[in-house]
Amino acid sequence: PVTYRMGLMTTPWIDWEEALWDYRMQGPVAVDRNGYMSSSDIGIGADGKVNHELVYMQVMAFNGTGYGSAATPGDQHKSVAGRVSVRVATTDDMSRVGGVRVTAYGQYGKPTGGGTRTRLLGMLSYHSTLLTLAAEGGLMRDSSTAGTQDVLRKGRVISAYGVLHFTGSPAAVIARVDRVTPNTGASSTTPGYSNTRIIGGVSYQLSPNLRILGDLDYVTYANGTPATPAGLEAQRGQALFQAQFTF
């Protein structure tokens, strides 16, 4: 019922959510895409399950810098995190993401150099062989004491998505909406105070090892596009054709 891990591994929240969403081929989930978490990091952890994954949980102590950061491995400041998911009703899918589930996640740590890095997330989801529906909300807190004292930034992430598989067909329709407020303490009239990403598309499973996806990915910014980082305006709307190869 318990599996222990050490080394470079998937982090507790993103590992679980991507198994539910199942379309990383389109792009990262909201908390990863907006820089609040990394999909993998170096650390130690354990996965546990109770009563055929009625309860599924994971804990981890890790660097907190993410596998792709130039700061890896950073300094003595680390992060600890835990996720627990409880199936409150069953469907025809009894996997770790199947059924109607309530999932919670908490993370506490300090970034390289010192400061604050906390994450609180909650999700309600439904997953069967034909339909996936999920809604999540998260509160993010970040500050730094490296060099001069930084003001605490309070971020907020809301995401909802669905996947519909057609009966007897390898085709599916996906839809997702992410709304991110990087700093709720800023003036609501600030350019880029929040952004809303809308994703929609159709996928087709050509074989067990190959899936293709055609989708639209469009972002809007409250009060206009922020000045930084550069290039956001050019990336607001994209039409994508993507393929996933599984080995």
Protein described:
Strands 1-2-3-4-5-6-7-8-9-10-11-12 form a 12-stranded antiparallel sheet, with helices on one face. With 247 residues, it is mainly β. The mean pLDDT is 92. The protein has 2 helices and 12 strands.
Summarize the structure.
The protein is mainly beta and 247 residues long. The protein is built from two helices and twelve strands; from the N terminus they run E-H-H-E-E-E-E-E-E-E-E-E-E-E. Strands 1-2-3-4-5-6-7-8-9-10-11-12 form a twelve-stranded antiparallel beta sheet, with helices on one face.
DSSP helix count? 2
Question: What composes the largest sheet?
Answer: 12 strands, antiparallel
User: Could you say which overall geometry the principal axes of the C-alpha atoms support?
Assistant: globular
Unreliable stretches covering 5 or more consecutive residues: none
Percentage of residues in helical conformation: under 10%
Report Rg: 19 Å
Average of per-residue pLDDT values? 92
SSE string, helices as H and strands as E: EHHEEEEEEEEEEE
- Widest sheet, order of strands: 1-2-3-4-5-6-7-8-9-10-11-12
Strand content: over 45%
What is the distance, rounded to the nearest whole angstrom, between the alpha carbons of the first and last residues? 27 Å
Number of beta strands: 12
Structural class: mainly beta
Strand-helix topology:
Elements: E1 2-10, H1 12-21, H2 30-33, E2 40-50, E3 55-62, E4 79-89, E5 99-109, E6 115-127, E7 131-144, E8 153-165, E9 171-181, E10 195-207, E11 210-221, E12 237-245
Antiparallel strand pairs: 1-2, 2-3, 3-4, 4-5, 5-6, 6-7, 7-8, 8-9, 9-10, 10-11, 11-12
